[in-house]
Amino acid sequence: MGREVMTAERFTMERLSDPAGFKAQMTRDVRRGLTADKKSIPSIYFYDDHGSELFEEITLLPEYYLTRAETEILEAHANGIMSSVQPDELMEIGAGFARKTRLLLSAMHATGSGSRYVPIDVSDAALKHAGDALTTTYPWLTVDAYVGDFLLDLHRVPHQGRRVVAFLGSTIGNLPPDERGSFLKEVASSLNPGDVFLLGVDLVKDEQAMISAYSDAQGISAQFNKNVLTVINRTLDGDLPLDAFEHETRYNEACSCMEQSLRATRDISASLAAIDLHLEIANGESIHTEFSCKFTSDSISQELIDAGLSVSSVLTDRLDQFALVVAAR
Ligand SMILES: C[S@@+](CC[C@H](N)C(=O)[O-])C[C@H]1O[C@@H](n2cnc3c(N)ncnc32)[C@H](O)[C@@H]1O
Known about the structure:
Elements: E1 2-5, E2 11-15, H1 19-35, H2 49-59, H3 65-85, E3 89-93, H4 101-110, E4 116-121, H5 124-137, E5 142-147, H6 150-153, E6 163-167, H7 177-190, E7 196-202, H8 207-213, H9 220-236, E8 245-252, E9 257-264, E10 268-272, E11 277-281, E12 286-293, H10 297-306, E13 310-316, E14 322-328
Parallel strand pairs: 2-5, 3-4, 3-6, 4-5, 6-7
Antiparallel strand pairs: 1-2, 7-14, 8-9, 9-12, 10-11, 13-14
The structure holds S-adenosylmethionine (SAM).
């Protein structure tokens, strides 16, 4: 652990928990999730190096409207937001490859604000890629990256001065509905007066458009979904057979969530040797792998108000597909 200076002097990266701690956390989550009556795996485990790359591919797919719509909003509003807040730093939760972030960073520079970018993500490969690329493009930028779990480690990321805290990509929708409130409260309590929270959320829309975004014609979403089994097999010395599962996706109207799962196409007998766990999964049984919850402007505003924030605007793209909520304490 400790702070590592990466390829450029202006880019450092620090692990907030050691790899053994991460494995112990996965052991607990996988044991609990795969031995429950309704099997599930938390979505944090999608994002090893390959999973992060697959997610980047998804963002470029014609069916995946989310990234294009959020980019359109940022192109229209990043300058206005940055000139009114004048932050010393931009912190980003679940930053990934930080491509859309460039719009916020450019606006931060153009409006004479700060020059520090502080991303936190579980994927060290994505952070490394982002930090290298951003410090190359922006010679004025300092990147202090943190590898960690934003559900556990947010309070351990140090701040300096006034901040814009961005949580883009509708990653908030990946939190199970009953966990969102406590996470938003934690974000709210980390904000100081003058700080601004930017939250990107996907909006409820035509069901077929939502389903297509998670089951694209090229099968990249299916590969992304199955990659979680590869991560578990590698980390826990398992033999879950990838070819015995199919990608499933459906819209659950009760929680306004797209749900992804992996459905067994035959009876499966598998084990995770590293944790001495034997699994019997019946033909037709599903392992729930991801929520991608959808919102309305009113529903997300209410969740932010319930978390102790005040909402100053809800910005949408021209087709009302996606929203960027601007909130403060
Ligand atoms: C849906 S992607 C969004 C990436 C990027 N912000 C965007 O808008 O395209 C979710 C990102 O959050 C990260 N992530 C997911 N769960 C996490 C967790 N519990 N802690 C830290 N990072 C997490 C993933 O590695 C990934 O980069």
